[in-house]
Design a protein that fits this description.
The chain is globular and about 60 Å long. 42% of the residues lie in helices and 13% in strands. Helix 7 runs parallel beside helix 8. The protein has 2 domains: 277 residues, Rossmann fold, CATH 3.40.50; 125 residues, Rossmann fold, CATH 3.40.50. The strands form 2 sheets. It has a 7-stranded mixed sheet, with helices on both faces. The protein has a 4-stranded parallel sheet with strand order 6-5-4-7, sandwiched between helices. The chain is built from 16 helices and 11 strands. The structure holds pyridoxal-5'-phosphate.
Length: 439
Amino acid sequence: MLDIEKLKKEIPITEEIAACRELLWNNPGCRHHEDAAPSEEPIVDIDEAEARLLRFAPYIEKVYPDVLEGIIESDLTEIPEMKEALAMDTEGVLEPVELPGRLFLKCDSHLPISGSVKARGGIYEVLKFAEQVAMENGMLTEEDDYSILAEPRFRDLFSRYSVAVGSTGNLGLSIGIMSAKLGFQVTVHMSADARQWKKDMLRSQGVIVKEYPDDYEAAVAQGRREAEEDPNCHFVDDENSLDLFAGYSVAGKRLKQQLEARGITIDEEHRLYVYLPCGVGGAPGGVTYGIKEYFGDDAYCFFAEPTHAPCMTLGLATGLHNRISVKDVGIDGRTEADGLAVGRASALVADAMESRLDGCFTVDDSRLYPYLAILKDTEDLFIEPSACAGFAGLKYIAEGQANVPAPDEDSIHIVWATGGSMVPEEEKNSYYIKGKMEV
Ligand SMILES: *Cc1c(COP(=O)(O)O)cnc(C)c1O
């Protein structure tokens, strides 16, 4: 049993986390702050993952002609009007922030096929499984043009296999849509937080959706149990998957190319600050891993979590990683940021972030909708509530509260917008109206 009172005494921030207060946690273990950075073993091979995605590009282009060159990537969009609006005092729930440097949005909200950051890791893992099945059955080699995978003989093959996943929503969408397209049988175990339209959309594509009155952890556990009973079932383990992690990590390499294409070089004088919404940790963890591999010590990464589901902040701050849940400190785990409604962090990611992540901050749900509305008004971009969490971190960096060099006019800030383009119009409107009322 965890002795929570003792924990609160030894690690005072635990008390603040338990009180659901908005806070910034600076990671004392981040290698920036060490005199001699320890050399670290690579966790995944980013080049290998990227090469696999390139092999699949002809297939993706064939079955999704809208996906340019078959590469699932999003725009990096500068949002100067948003930056200006954030500096204004509206006397609402958002304090004005004067941010030195340029502000960008990484539009994973608009990633093709499934409209969220999960299109990186989730689709990568399904493709890798399909490749493995096809190769084991002697029907595919790396030298083939992968567009053959759209042929009926492959659908027949894949229909003898199944894929399962537990999800708060968006991972289920990515896994479900891609698996169904390839021809796999697919089951998505959805937590109570998942939005109805996500379940409806999956069912319309032939995906089996099982619902759990419980939270995300329960949905994942049930999915894992059912998958274990079936040797032909591949379980996408959101809490431990290296394949998901590898798929996300490719973003770091692509981001470097995107910045270079804009003539932006990141170095000691042109620092990069990245703000990433975090649920179980896989997506922001993989992206951070990739960013640190490609930008080294000139990039600073922060996770954003809801005050009611701060699992990574709690896991890292206490050093207990996945051995503590937000429920252990009396937090309900309920949040409007459905994609972030996770009570226990991924062990894999918590370990990987111990020396790589610069810090975490938490955000109250009441701020998410105002950010959503202001972004829509200023830049005509819609992103979902979870995806807005990153904006709440700008103030900590701007005010120099983080244990990293303060930003200046040469700094680049990237808020990672993790989802939103697939949200039905009606829901988009209701989120927007909610935001307008709270601004
Ligand atoms: C899943 C998700 C995240 C966080 O990803 P994790 O891998 O769960 O940490 C952030 N935003 C949105 C919109 C998501 O769907």
